[in-house]
UniProtKB/TrEMBL annotation:
<feature type="transmembrane region" description="Helical">
    <location>
        <begin position="276"/>
        <end position="298"/>
    </location>
</feature>
<feature type="transmembrane region" description="Helical">
    <location>
        <begin position="21"/>
        <end position="45"/>
    </location>
</feature>
<feature type="transmembrane region" description="Helical">
    <location>
        <begin position="233"/>
        <end position="256"/>
    </location>
</feature>
<keyword id="KW-0812">Transmembrane</keyword>
<dbReference type="InterPro" id="IPR003838">
    <property type="entry name" value="ABC3_permease_C"/>
</dbReference>
<protein>
    <recommendedName>
        <fullName>Cell division protein FtsX</fullName>
    </recommendedName>
</protein>
<keyword id="KW-1133">Transmembrane helix</keyword>
<comment type="function">
    <text>Part of the ABC transporter FtsEX involved in cellular division.</text>
</comment>
<dbReference type="Pfam" id="PF02687">
    <property type="entry name" value="FtsX"/>
</dbReference>
<keyword id="KW-0131">Cell cycle</keyword>
<feature type="transmembrane region" description="Helical">
    <location>
        <begin position="177"/>
        <end position="201"/>
    </location>
</feature>
<feature type="domain" description="FtsX extracellular">
    <location>
        <begin position="57"/>
        <end position="161"/>
    </location>
</feature>
<comment type="subunit">
    <text>Forms a membrane-associated complex with FtsE.</text>
</comment>
<feature type="domain" description="ABC3 transporter permease C-terminal">
    <location>
        <begin position="185"/>
        <end position="300"/>
    </location>
</feature>
<dbReference type="InterPro" id="IPR047929">
    <property type="entry name" value="FtsX_actino"/>
</dbReference>
<dbReference type="InterPro" id="IPR040690">
    <property type="entry name" value="FtsX_ECD"/>
</dbReference>
<keyword id="KW-0132">Cell division</keyword>
Length: 304
């Protein structure tokens, strides 16, 4: 009987403040969608870092006739100089840190260059001798790239030694900034959702002030009076949270996996498993914020 009365009060509150309830649902939905997207973006950044950093190489570029580095003196690296670098890479000092080494000569560099810049006029201006011969070193632990760089960068014939992870850092910085922006927007909208829930609860309580007065006169406990209002906020937030969780799952399933994964096949993306992991987090956050904001509103402003 008490449960039926409480649920009846919740339904009555929904009918009296339908527009406010819809607003709570929409704001909760949008804010938690941003929040879920920010979590997934962090998953994506961590996944891409692991994927690309493991594949990042240390590139040892050799001098060419057109090199501008003072150490090259506009002179092509000799076969002996290249062999000396190879011996250093295969030596007992560096070998424990290196997975394997690939050599790219002028012609191979030219073929790769043409593939990369196919369809551009720039590709027609370059000839093989302009492109450096290169050792591409795959590390067992990419974080130890500095060991190789320190050993070979000053060797004769070497124009430049580059840790390719440095090329990835700006990309991940941009993605991190986007993630923090999404979290900021989600935080602002969650504050708006909390305020809307509080306002909705206060309006609902105000419209039923006579019933509340009677309930207090007949000895109803504060908990019994508060419960319908808290359930109103939680139910509205639950609907918004479930919609947000569904949106996150749909985005991953149809956009990330259905489009991005097919378009950019050589990159690891978040999966449906990640989305299903985020979904209950969104529902839990929505319900918790709604319960807390509704409880504070009814106690602080109505002095129940």
């Amino acid at each position: 009987m008490r449960l039926g009365l409480i649920l009846g009060e919740v339904g009555q509150g929904f009918r009296r403040n339908l527009s406010m309830v819809i607003s709570v649902i929409l704001v909760t939905f949008i804010s938690l969608t941003f929040f879920g997207a920010a979590i997934l973006l962090q998953f994506q950044i961590n996944q891409m870092k692991g994927y690309w950093y493991d594949r990042a190489q240390v590139a040892v570029y050799f001098c060419t006739d057109v090199s501008v580095e003072p150490s090259c003196n506009a002179t092509e690296a000799s076969a002996d100089q290249i062999a000396a670098v190879k011996a250093q890479l295969d030596g007992t000092t560096l070998k424990p840190y290196i997975k394997h080494v690939d050599f790219e000569n002028h012609q191979q560099a030219y073929e790769n260059f043409k593939k990369q810049f196919a369809g551009t006029s720039f590709a027609d201006l370059v000839t093989p001798e302009y492109l450096s011969q290169t050792f591409r070193v795959n590390m067992k632990n990419p974080g130890q790239a500095e060991i190789v760089i320190d050993q070979v960068k000053a060797m004769p014939g070497v124009e430049q030694v580059e840790d390719q992870r440095t090329l990835l850092d700006p990309i991940f910085s941009i993605m991190n900034a986007a993630s923090y922006t999404a979290i900021g927007i989600a935080g602002l909208m969650l504050v708006a959702a909390v305020l809307l829930i509080s306002t909705t609860i206060r309006l609902s309580a105000f419209s039923r002030r006579r019933e509340l007065g009677i309930m207090r006169l007949v000895g109803a406990s504060n908990r019994f009076i508060e419960t319908p209002f808290i359930l109103e906020g939680m139910l509205a937030a639950l609907i918004g949270s479930v919609l947000a969780a569904g949106a996150i799952v749909a985005i991953v399933q149809f956009f990330v996996q259905g489009y991005l994964q097919q378009t950019i096949a050589n990159t690891a993306f978040v999966t449906l498993t990640d989305a299903l992991l985020v979904a209950p987090i969104l529902v839990g956050v929505g319900m918790l914020l709604a319960a807390l904001s509704a409880s504070v509103a009814i106690r602080r402003y109505l002095k129940v």
